[in-house]
Amino acid sequence: MGKGGVGKSTLSALHAISLSNTDKKTLLISMDPAHNQADIFEKKLGEKPVSVKDNLSIIEINIDKWIKRYLRNVQNRITESYQYLTAINLDKKFNVLKYSPGLEEYALLLAFEEILKKFKSYDNLIFDMPPTALALRFFALPKLSLVWLESLLGLRKEIIEKREIITKIKLGRKEFERDNILNKLNVLSHQYNSLHERFRNRENVKVNIVMNEDRLSLNESQRINQNLNRLGIHTDRIYLNKVSQKSVTSDLSAIFKDIPTISYSQADYPLIGIDALNKYLSEND
């Protein structure tokens, strides 16, 4: 994570190469709509893994595709739960959903879940995140959704009690209560709780902040760390990138207590292509 332009994509690429050099099967995932990885590796990328070297492949997340997929899922849920909408033609008004706020982070979360399932054979998944605002909304979404779902669950239970709309099914001596909407809310609650706990798991998830030496970058990185802490998410490392004079390094230990800082010097040649990236790694081991 980090401010736009600090070098998140380049450091993600270097980190991915470094891991793959240790025989770790690594997947680099571009979550940033700018998709700089294609330029860095000089490869045409998409949602199918493209191998760039032994043990390293890259994919790009097409956020527009995942927004459409998310909207289809929402539409299907609504039509399944409220079948009467078809009778009064309200189902034809669902295209208004595409103007809803917050779609990007929901789409990224959907893509994130799919990647975890689809590529679990990899040793490491490196996510090159979008700039600060969208990245923080992405990490905050599971917790915010849980607050919202808790209220909806309470409301749904109250509706069920007052209107007695539960269908009762008798199976042998056992009696089960069924309400499709309540079931779906419980499924979503479990889903977002699992994601929230995953983000908080320091063993399996490492969130790194990339920053430069300037004061604006330092201030934004400090805010990122504070916001992550509020979500119960730990910052694993601070990457100080494009170091020339180490003008703010003395401030870092006081600001980012107990968080290791790793400095990367300013390259005097473009870090474009696998050869240039490997050269930089060998010079800055």
Describe this structure in words.
- With 285 residues, this protein is of the alpha/beta class.
- It has one domain: P-loop containing nucleotide triphosphate hydrolases (Rossmann fold, 3-Layer(aba) Sandwich).
- Helices cover 50% and strands 17% of the residues.
- It is built from ten helices and nine strands.
- It has helices at 8-20, 37-41, 63-81, 84-87, 103-118, 132-163, 180-200, 215-230, 249-255, 274-283, and strands at 26-30, 50-53, 56-60, 124-128, 167-171, 174-178, 207-211, 235-243, 261-265.
- The strands form three sheets. Strands 2-3-1-4 form a four-stranded mixed beta sheet. Strands 7-8-9 form a three-stranded parallel beta sheet, with helices on one face. The chain has a two-stranded antiparallel ribbon with strand order 5-6.
- α5 (103-118) crosses α6.
- The two termini are 22 Å apart.
Strand and helix layout:
Layout: H1 8-20, E1 26-30, H2 37-41, E2 50-53, E3 56-60, H3 63-81, H4 84-87, H5 103-118, E4 124-128, H6 132-163, E5 167-171, E6 174-178, H7 180-200, E7 207-211, H8 215-230, E8 235-243, H9 249-255, E9 261-265, H10 274-283
Parallel strand pairs: 1-3, 1-4, 7-8, 8-9
Antiparallel strand pairs: 2-3, 5-6
Helix pairs in contact: 3-5, 5-6, 6-7, 6-8
Search tags:
alpha/beta, 9 strands, three-stranded parallel beta sheet, globular, Rossmann fold, 285 residues
